[in-house]
Amino acid sequence: MSQHFQSSRFMKNVVVGLSGGVDSSTAAAILHHQGYAVIGLTLWLMKGKGQCCSEGMVDAAKLCEQLGVPHHIVDIRDAFQENIVDYLVSGYSTGITPLPCSQCNKAVKFGPMLRYARQELGVDLIATGHYARTRYDETTGRYQLLRAVDRNKDQSYFLYDLSQDILEHVLFPLGEQPKTETRRAAAEFGLHTADKPESQDLCLVEANGSMRAFLDKYLTPQKGDIVDQSGNVLGQHDGVHHYTIGQRKGLGIAHSEPLYVVALDAQQNRVIVGDRTATLSGGCTIQRVNWVSIANPTAPISAQVQIRYRSAAVPATVIPLKGDDPSGLPHRVRIVFENLQSSVTPGQAAVWYDDDVLLGGGIIEQQVD
User: Fold this and answer.
1) Among 190, 235, 265, 296, which residue has the fewest nearby CB atoms (within 10 Å)?
2) What CATH number should be reported for the domain whose range is 220-274?
3) Active-site hit among 64, 101, 203, 284
4) What is the pTM of this model?
5) Is 53 an annotated catalytic residue?
């Protein structure tokens, strides 16, 4: 358990982000049981069904009534539209596959939560039901972000963009326990969300049925060619935004060997495919880097790099690239993998660790050999 969590007890006010799911509900109940003065906060992100919208707000309100604590709802739909919906649509339209969750956590959830807690409620502590941990490193004077004890539920990958200010003032009550314990605790507390099904990782998918359905609301499908790496036409696609790097299924092409999407050319409206070896890459460049648990290094470091939420972290070298900002601090890095990696996808996050400690992360810019 983090030092911060251990020292923040007994009737200290904490604003808990409530989505209406079992994780956030149990986090609030745990803190309430431990003696914190809990204030529930639900962010209204968008209209429609889904645990983060109308249904979630109702369940969050029921929880707060059960615990006997206040419940606030903050309308943040404009920020969600600008930072997430527009961000996704813009990315897919240019042939990349954006990862909205880390952007959402920084710009829409944690930042606004802490500001609202401070400015409207006079509270300087927030908590969520994410599976992650924090601790203070006295040697460096920085707050560190760590993987959750339950590696199967660990969500630190999505939290790499959080600032030191947020890490100093956030609690993750579920970070030290497995998901099975969360369900057990929810039942023990008598929470109505104890048996609630898991929500999907991406709320927009949950609200629209699929990412394809969501994107088709904003981007008009335009037919084009599926070509091999030599430019030979192998088939037709119904919109570049329906595809992602590494995709194998749904190509609709009969071929002597399995084909994978290796590149998306939005400008020429082409989906480029190749065999599995064509998906392999020795590295990539990363932009919008946030150094989390350590200060910006000036020399290469060795780390374990994770390029997708469900992929394993692999050995690599992280090389800072000199930035063009006045401070000269690196805001871009180059990743060199120890072994070739498949489906390195522009727009997704690359996050690097030292064992359980998340060192930093950023957005994949492009593959490099």
Assistant:
1) 190
2) 2.30.30.280
3) 203
4) 0.90
5) no
